[in-house]
Amino acid sequence: MFSDNKQRNLLNQAVCLLVLLCFVACNANYKPSFKQSITDSSLRSRVSRVIDAQMDNVKDYLDEDLRARIDGSSRAAGRMSGSEIVDMTLSESGGKDYLDFCYSVDFAQTTNDVTEVMDTAKCLLPADKYQELVELTEDVERQINLKGEEIARAIPLNQQAAFYRDLKTLVTRAIVLLTAGIVYACMPTVIFWGKISAACAISVGAGLVAISIMSLYEYFRFGTGEGQSFEDWFKGLIEVPKADFALTTAITAVAQAMGAGPVVTGIIICVFALYNIVDLARTMLKTYNFDA
């Protein structure tokens, strides 16, 4: 009997040790989501800077009462600062989620990755809208990988790698912009201060897409497309399978984001105008028969 009890005790200890090892191992490999990794101090400072930088681009497209509060019509101190707006947003139900999203979009400027943007958007979008975004992102990544070995025949060999990177960047940034547009379009009417950070995310996303479009435009203006009009170059470009997919995906995303409502459309056109590419974007949209 003593021997049996001893064996049971040893077995129990062995099981406990195994469970403990598994627990430690799992926690050692555990990586928090992007949202969980954002500290309060970095959130406040980064989003405050984004709001201050983008306010002139977004303010005129916001609700009239929100514009009045921003301008400080009843405050002697004048227009509200980004840090003040962050504080007001944090006091609002669900406000931190919108700040997290704005943070992730700005963060995407340096990473050129949609993972963090999707992670934060998941908390803000209805399940069906989020699933549409997931499917779009997966399709883009899958198609780019499948076409990774294909070469744009019209491009000289020494320029192919750089051009393909530009196309992939354009697609990624367009998805960021599309996500920002959908997030704003799906905002509940009760959200007040969160609208500012969401609108600023659209502005940042539009700026990223604008820079990518200008990069491609300048590349062909001074490279293989020299002497061509942008429209002629673009029509010729869509005959290249890889470029066709990448640009179609990017411009589809822009068109869908622009169709998400007057606020989204207004901010995108405003930012595009700052980069002097409104006509270029319209040409691209017309080429694919989108109404914008």
* Strand residue percentage: under 5%
Largest sheet: none
Query: What is the rounded distance between the termini?
Result: 84 Å
How many whole angstroms does the radius of gyration measure?
24 Å
Mean pLDDT: 77
H-E string: HHHHHHHHHHHHHH
Shape: globular
- Helical content stands at over 70%
* Helix count, DSSP H or I runs of 4 or more residues: 14
**Total DSSP E strands:** 0
What is shown here, in short?
This protein has 292 residues and is mainly α.
Structural account:
The chain is mostly helical and 292 residues long. 74% of the residues lie in helices and 0% in strands. It contains 14 helices and no strands. The chain has helices spanning 2-29, 34-37, 40-58, 64-71, 82-90, 95-111, 115-121, 127-146, 160-185, 194-221, 230-237, 241-258, 262-274, 278-287. It is globular, with a radius of gyration of 24 Å. Mean pLDDT is 77; it is low at 19-30.
Please specify the SSE layout and strand pairing:
Elements: H1 2-29, H2 34-37, H3 40-58, H4 64-71, H5 82-90, H6 95-111, H7 115-121, H8 127-146, H9 160-185, H10 194-221, H11 230-237, H12 241-258, H13 262-274, H14 278-287
Helix pairs in contact: 3-5, 3-6, 3-10, 5-6, 6-7, 6-10, 8-9, 9-10, 9-12, 10-13, 11-14
